[in-house]
Amino acid sequence: MAEETSATDPVHIPLIEADRPSSKLAEFSANEPLELDAGTELAPWQIAYETYGEMNAEKTNAVLVCHALTGDQYVASSNPITGKPGWWTRMVGPGRPIDTDRYFVICANVLGGCLGTTGPATTNPATDAPYGLKMPVVTIRDMVRAQARLIDRLGIDTLFAVVGGSMGGMQVLQWAASYPERVFAAVPIAAGARHSSQNIAFHEVGRQAIMADPDWCGGAYIAAGKRPTKGLSVARMAAHITYMSDESLHQKFGRNLQDRDDLTFGFDADFQIESYLRHQGMTFVDRFDANSYLYVTRAMDYFDLAAEFGSLPAAFKDSKTRFCVMSFTSDWLFPTSESRAVVKALNAAAANVSFVEIDSDRGHDAFLLDVPEMFSTIRGFITGAANARGIPAPGGSD
Amino acid sequence: MAEETSATDPVHIPLIEADRPSSKLAEFSANEPLELDAGTELAPWQIAYETYGEMNAEKTNAVLVCHALTGDQYVASSNPITGKPGWWTRMVGPGRPIDTDRYFVICANVLGGCLGTTGPATTNPATDAPYGLKMPVVTIRDMVRAQARLIDRLGIDTLFAVVGGSMGGMQVLQWAASYPERVFAAVPIAAGARHSSQNIAFHEVGRQAIMADPDWCGGAYIAAGKRPTKGLSVARMAAHITYMSDESLHQKFGRNLQDRDDLTFGFDADFQIESYLRHQGMTFVDRFDANSYLYVTRAMDYFDLAAEFGSLPAAFKDSKTRFCVMSFTSDWLFPTSESRAVVKALNAAAANVSFVEIDSDRGHDAFLLDVPEMFSTIRGFITGAANARGIPAPGGSD
């Protein structure tokens, strides 16, 4: 925090939790354990979060934004580690579709993460060393349980809306399934009700890359004073390809060479796409913990609402939540078919659902990018729901 | 070779070339250098190959089969290292579409490979140590140049056909472009005239995984008595996902668990897809050299016929070759659009071309699998071309 960094200096997550820049923290004592799907409990534990806007007196205007695999709680404010702006400032802020002049927005670092919420880098009270692989494997349901405990502590009975893309969308669906009475409106974007075989496969490659790095040290790299940066970088590179469409890669990079006129006949980054991927890998290791990557990918792999409830319609039985399900035409990681399966189940459960497939060539990452149709659709849906919920519009109009 | 191995024993490529099981070899002395696109020469050098069937007196019935990235010359006979049957026995053999009762079939290990043809594990005459990264980077055109030298040595003027899938299809297209007068018929399958940005990206991930492995030793692992098996395994796992379609992964594995009834809440292979991928990675390192993987992927990345000739139609100008271009509906690594671009260029060049997109849910690997429409199409095309070429049918009919 006190160090000066330029845009080109590497920035490292302080591995010792106490040294990290702190968000707001909800701390739960040894007497307030978090029940986990693994059949065990976590205690003490904590959840780090940011808020934007003001909660109204009736506590009816809270919007929970759920972040994706490598996201964080800094949805609409600068990340103190990277110095970069919030990751969804186009969506969340004054006058934005999720309007902080009207709504009280909460975004929490997920359980298993590395930005303040309990995760594998957290000190294990049983050993006084970082948990590492002694941290129980967590699930999307566990992440949502932790968020529900935070919402309890904030005194919020029913969230006005839960919104998120990718793994954030999984959390939205889990919220709607686990706590239907606490979710007025739900917006799962570029997600699905399960992780597909191909998705699991890509995650497994990433995990194997991390665990193949000798500096991973069986998960105990913090105690060893090491970091499996090479393995984590390869994992990020592989994953990053899946976030973009073939078309967007072609448009952005094609076969363009990197700062040269000819091929070098070597193994340096001849092509811009190589240089871009290497950069993605190298910068990622500065802001993300390798064990967290293992845990959070595992949580996604385990996600399967139909298995949890017996069937997907059963997951949404008698739901009164209003859903706005959204997918992108060029997203091959969570293709439209996965969203359609959710919509079909919601229809079978007689839920209130609208579905929008947005035409975009940007692939899975479209939900993070400047896609006007996404913003206008969400603005319309959220505003309609807020009016139905009786949340006053800013300035008294809408 | 003398060791007994069972199907479950690991089999290792002998790293010292002289210890490897030998195919037929065409050896070229220090006075017979191979010119390379890198602007240098390779000498001495050699190319290892297998043949099937008999060359006719006129030498008009030779079919060159070109193998893919991790393929080898054992197209229709057992691989002496793995003990497995040839990789395309459904396509090549007596009575098969490429009928060894009618044609003389040649299949050579590619330049830069690791099964007898000169590659990075070959002894560098300048140092008496394996080339490692001192081997010049080679291209698809260099591979084809080497094959042309082999064909010269066999006394063959014109190949009746050149056939191959994936990187083999790239070689087919390069043959037709570089030596149009020497190719009567060409069958590029599941290929394209360039490597796309996404394809380069996946290869770069694989290379970074290999080079991140400390046992890679900067490429000099043979001298160090090591092998970067973990890195190579991760590279193979990542690549293997791209060879299958989302649909085929879903059908074959879905979210099925591996030999267990419940999730283990750990990082072992819970899902069948994980176990399958790990197996693919582990068995691959027993039969493939890590530096060869770097070189051969690089050759594919560099492939771009339009760049070489100024435009794609220019690559096929005045071609008299008969083409049968084939793609598969679910192949996302070399999608039909890449084949269509080739066909469009062939049409613009007024070449003789037929194009078949085969309906298959098996992804890129379909060309290696039991896809009846592929066999019947190639049988029909090859038979028609053979009749036009005046190659007698076996038994005097057909």
UniProtKB/TrEMBL annotation, chains A, B:
Matching Pfam families, A to Z?
Abhydrolase_1
Q: Does the keyword DNA damage apply?
A: no
Q: Where in the cell is it found?
A: Cytoplasm
Q: Which PANTHER family match?
A: HOMOSERINE O-ACETYLTRANSFERASE
This protein's name: Homoserine O-acetyltransferase
Quaternary structure and interacting proteins, as annotated:
Homodimer.
> What molecular functions are annotated in GO for this chain?
homoserine O-acetyltransferase activity
What is the purpose of this protein? Transfers an acetyl group from acetyl-CoA to L-homoserine, forming acetyl-L-homoserine.
Q: Determine the domain of life of the protein's source.
A: Bacteria
Where it mainly occurs, coarsely classed, is cytoplasm
Catalytic center at which residues? S166, D331, H364
Q: What is its EC number?
A: 2.3.1.31
